[in-house]
Write a structure and sequence with these properties.
Blueprint (H helix, E strand, L loop, with lengths): L7 H4 L15 E8 L8 E6 L4 E6 L1 H16 L3 E8 L3 E8 L9 E3 L5 E3 L2 H23 L14 E5 L2 H12 L16
Antiparallel strand pairs: 1-5, 1-8, 2-3, 4-5, 6-7
Helix pairs in contact: 2-3
Length: 191
């Protein structure tokens, strides 16, 4: 790589993952996935007239994101999906990896009858891939906004939820995310 092709924000990315931690372990994980270039793809935050309420109004792409998140449970049967929120340019959710059928959690038979750990990264890679294909179909068939190569950023943010108090705090943050959009760190006005 020549000096002129070196971009510190891209090439010096440090992993957000805890070193040595097995991300297929049972537990609760708070995740955030951001749109590439923080593009608004999934709808908009609106104030309900006559009410003191702010909501996320989904466009077709936002509705597709919500459906595919809910369908993730069909693909990975050792997970429970908790609170989630699609925002204009990002997504928050809580995934719980659970034990299944007496097998250690995170394991599923593969085509060679061996067991393979499925990590949070595996699950989010699948989600990002499925939703990207869904978005491409939306562009082709429904006239959604075109995009340049990717709808999601390469990485995602994760946090291992350690106790009930933290779960309640994070759940409330997710549920109330639309009403706090003005001060949200992912709002382009605050970047």
């Amino acid at each position: 790589m020549t000096k002129s092709n070196y971009y510190p924000k891209i090439h010096n990315r440090k992993s957000q993952r805890l070193k040595g931690y097995d991300y297929s372990n049972e537990g609760l994980y708070f995740i955030t996935i951001c749109c590439q270039n923080m593009e608004h793809r999934f709808g908009e935050i609106i104030q309900i007239e006559g009410a003191n309420k702010v909501i996320m109004e989904f466009n077709g792409a936002g509705e597709m994101i919500n459906v595919e998140w809910s369908n993730l449970k069909n693909r990975f049967q050792n997970i429970e999906l908790h609170e989630f929120q699609t925002m204009p340019n990002h997504f928050h959710g809580i995934i719980e990896i659970v034990e299944m059928d007496g097998r250690p959690q995170g394991h599923a038979p593969t085509n060679n009858n061996s067991l393979k750990n499925k990590t949070i990264s595996d699950m989010l890679d699948a989600f990002k891939s499925i939703t990207t294909l869904g978005y491409i179909r939306g562009v082709d068939v429904l006239g959604w906004d075109r995009f340049d190569k990717k709808i999601w950023q390469r990485n995602f943010h994760d946090h291992i939820i350690k106790d009930e108090k933290e779960y309640i705090r994070i759940s409330n943050y997710i549920v109330n995310n639309p009403s706090s959009w003005e001060s949200d760190k992912f709002n382009p006005k605050n970047l």
